[in-house]
Amino acid sequence: MRIVVPAGGIGGARFLRGLKKELGVGSDPVGEEPAITVIGNTGDDITLFGLRICPDLDTVMYTLGGGINEEQGWGRADESFTVKEELAAYGMQPTWFGLGDRDVATHIVRAQMMAAGYPLSAVTEALCDRWRPGLRVLPMTDDRVETHVVLDDEAGGRRAVHFQEWWIRHRAALPAREIVGVGAEDATPAPGVLEAIEQADAVLLPPSNPVVSIGSVLSVPGVREALERATVVGVSPIIGGAPVRGMADACLQAIGVETSARAVAEHYGPELLDGWLVDEADEGAAVDGIAVRSLPLYMSDPEATAAIARAALDLAAELKEQRA
Amino acid sequence: MRIVVPAGGIGGARFLRGLKKELGVGSDPVGEEPAITVIGNTGDDITLFGLRICPDLDTVMYTLGGGINEEQGWGRADESFTVKEELAAYGMQPTWFGLGDRDVATHIVRAQMMAAGYPLSAVTEALCDRWRPGLRVLPMTDDRVETHVVLDDEAGGRRAVHFQEWWIRHRAALPAREIVGVGAEDATPAPGVLEAIEQADAVLLPPSNPVVSIGSVLSVPGVREALERATVVGVSPIIGGAPVRGMADACLQAIGVETSARAVAEHYGPELLDGWLVDEADEGAAVDGIAVRSLPLYMSDPEATAAIARAALDLAAELKEQRA
Questions:
Q1: CB atoms < 10 A from the CB of A267, how many?
Q2: What integer pLDDT is reported at residue A246 of this predicted model?
Q3: Could you tell me if residue B218 is inside a domain?
Q4: CB contact (8 A) between residue B82 and residue A105
Q5: How far from chain centre, in Å, is Cα B187?
Q6: ipTM surpasses cut 0.90
Q7: Is the pLDDT of residue B113 over 80?
Q8: Interface of B with A in 68-87 (CB under 8 A)
Q9: How many folded domains does chain A comprise?
Q10: What residues contact residue B32 under an 8 Å CB cut-off, 6+ apart?
Q11: What range does the record give for the signal peptide (chains A, B) (predicted)?
Q12: CA atoms within 13 A on the CB side of A246
């Protein structure tokens, strides 16, 4: 059984933990082909203080590898912020990024390997050698793609900021007029991405942000086309008209999509999406050409999340059989 | 009164603290010309993990700026080592360098400014904007000079390692066959260095390592010549045949100089050195052409250190008057 999961940060990582549990995947599949391949969003990546920071890849790696801060869902457990405080004492900008000391080491290793010429995919593999997340983590691309957000400026014009600045510094409170994946057009999928999709028994879209996480993965030329040939079942990140967590509504608004389970499925479209899981609160949501099932979608604990993963796998198997 | 002090790390920094006390220099001479200019050794500098580390400049800056770990004499007070431990967990080498979290921020700022094209002298000034050491800290040069130590290898030949590797990793226990300032020949003094020496009422050599600290400063073309024209009084780093602290004897041995107050003065030579302070234990040490005075030389507290600084200033004034 080979499963591919395009993923963002917290929602993706928690879904993956449930999926691993459901499939009985251990922490260290040395010597065997990993059952699960993650295609991680890198559009959130940012270079600060000479460090290369990949928030979504790290959230997946830390969560599956046992290093995550469970309460906040990102960053390392037992984290301190000495380096960040000292940088601020020197007057270094920006001060709004939550850079933990343990995290700094990860970014130093990554920045050093990249400066030495290693592609991000090789760096990610090296970092996972320590974390042993029990699945293969591929960045969506080795090329530099950065999500920028277009905002109104004070002079009545427009200005663009890095996604992280909008998301963290402004808490997505400034209206986003456009969300742009800078560099996406010219990017190529990282080694293994298209092959993994082609060989997948199922592709599951976790309840990650459909615009800046999954949307970013889809923006890499060739990825959407490959996914359209696969059996894809998605888990709605919207329950009862609101994001389960995070500020996905602000992103959906920016691209003119309503914040509803149905509208997100329509946005993905029936070419991409074969099946769609919605919460019981959204029972009755229907989209032409997409098989919709409803069940409890809150990932309240690993057991609840495993049940969601099971439902997604079952629907994918059912749809695949219908196709054959 | 203008004083110039070529300095290494701990010994130099502690001497400077006594000198400041003696001269009544506060922590923040904003708006006035600093009375003391330090010419800091940069031969110990090393790049690790993409960070630019200047141990001697930082020891001076932290000590005079109130951030030093008093007990060990180097590094920051209230320091933690999370980044270092995490780098080791990733398998990053080397693991022998004592890289503290607070210190990491200093090195990030420096590396970032240097990557942006600022010379080390400008970076040092920017860092001192935070620390306000109450004196002007100049690196000896903006060029890259690295002290390397030639050791025996196992095959009967020779190998060279960075000074830090010999000093910290091997605790200077491997016999040094040669000590080489790589890049020194082609270096030029940092802006302000020669001017400060020319305008100095006195140049004081603190009890820093005569080989790898003061020797390194002297190796920058033009510096020794300028010092030979100035009134220079040195404080012996050797008391009763042993270094006051550190492993200066291992360095002296490498260049064939006996570990004694007299031998170090002879090594500096009467062209450079006008006066020489030795401890009472070395009373009677005499060197042709150098005025030797004996007094208690242990820098046991700021008061004792201020008395040493006073004696050095008095001797310099006396010698300058004789010259005139």
A1: 19
A2: 80
A3: no
A4: yes
A5: 18
A6: yes
A7: yes
A8: 80, 82-83, 85-87
A9: 1
A10: none
A11: none
A12: 24
